[in-house]
């Protein structure tokens, strides 16, 4: 079973750092830069 997480963060550098960590932990990461985009994901 795939572990998926929605990462919503407006700071691109922080989003990249967190995504990198989550991918290393075998998560499938969906990203959004704001809540509206996150709800659309």
Automatic annotation (TrEMBL):
Q: Domain named Response regulatory: which ranges?
A: 4-41
Please give a single GO biological process term from the UniProt record: phosphorelay signal transduction system
Record's InterPro entries? CheY-like_superfamily, Sig_transdc_resp-reg_receiver
Q: What is this protein called?
A: Lfe139p1
Q: Which organism is it from?
A: Leptospirillum ferrooxidans
């Amino acid at each position: 079973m795939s572990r998926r997480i929605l990462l919503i963060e407006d700071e691109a550098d922080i989003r990249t750092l967190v995504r990198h960590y989550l991918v290393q932990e075998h998560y499938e990461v969906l990203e959004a830069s704001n809540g509206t985009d996150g709800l659309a994901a």
